[in-house]
Amino acid sequence: MKGYGQFCPIAKASEILCERWVPLVLREIMYGSARFNDIARGVPLMSRGLLAGRLRLLRDAGVVQLDGTTYRLTASGEALRPILDEMGQWAQRWGIAVLTDHDVDDRLLIWHLRRTLRLPESLHGRRVVVRFDFYGLPRGSRLARRSWWLVAEHGEVDLCYKNPGHEVDVTITADVRAFLDVLLGHRKLADAARSRTVRIEGDAALVRVISRWIPEAGGPPLVAAQALEALTMQA
Q1: pTM of the full predicted structure?
Q2: Domain count, the chain
Q3: Domain check: are 33 and 47 in the same one?
Q4: What is the tens place of the pLDDT at every residue in 76-132?
Q5: How far apart are CA 109 and CA 230, in angstroms?
């Protein structure tokens, strides 16, 4: 790793934290991704070889530790949590989190929902299946439309890339850009529903409350990605 050749603490911290992808890898571990494959799902444009290298860098720096096959933050890593959250809030406040077509990724969107969906305890005794039908995928995508399934059961949420064969309780059909705008706080879900860019259909009782399951608009796990990408473009 090439350093800055300066004794300044900011320079020394930047030698670790400003390596490209490092803050996003930390974001994944901070918000629940513990195994290599799960971390990789949260950074789908990052090669697995580069991910392995960045995890090794964080381990050598004492920020992350590996327990068997599980990655965990050390005390040093936990101390970075409010810093990364503040970076995300900075991006939200000052407009750095404005999306370009390059930023639109339904894979990251659905992975974010899988780990942050707030299923009420009253539903923990039953299986709830939510299908997401996204259209308006990024230019250059081989698909015009793609579906994902979130299966919530016993308080856990699983992400399925193929139809799991269970009865679907709620279907959310959305323009992917419009849905991202809702999650980032740029638009209200009710406004998107009125414009028909987001449609929620299915079990009437679940449809009425499903907006409460969606993480608060602008929450750090998703918003941080925009600021961190802008600040870590070093090769």
Answers
A1: 0.69
A2: 2
A3: yes
A4: 999 999 999 888 888 777 766 566 666 777 887 888 788 777 767 666 678 889 999
A5: 19
Q: In what order do the strands lie in the sheet with 198-202?
A: 156-160, 145-153, 128-135, 170-175, 198-202
Tell me the residue type at 8: C
Domain CATH number, residue 177 = 3.30.1050.10
Q: What is the pLDDT of residues 22-69, one digit of tens each?
A: 999 999 999 889 999 999 988 988 999 999 999 999 999 999 999 999
Entry field: residues in the chain: 235
Residue 4 lies in a domain: no
CB 158 within 8 A of CB 38: no
Neighbours of 114 (CB within 10 A): 20
Q: Which domain holds residue 58?
A: 9-98+221-231
